[in-house]
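Assess the record.
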Amino acid sequence: MLTMYSTSWCGYCHRLKSQLDREGIAYDVVDIEQDPKAADFVMSVNGGNQTVPTIRIVPTDGSSEIVMTNPSIIQVKQALAGSGVAG
């Protein structure tokens, strides 16, 4: 499962969403301004900052989750390929 933590006004988020859509990669979007727990998670993995887009990939094989901040579409595809999560 791929989750993108985002905000409604984030240009980098809009760009990555468009790229994921073009590649046919399924994802869920969580707006950190609407979900305090999501904001807490984003801050916990970004040194206290609410940096978006933050991507979280939970592998299907039970291995450790993958978290990336402001990744390129190539980085996302590589992480998905190695995680057992279908794109």
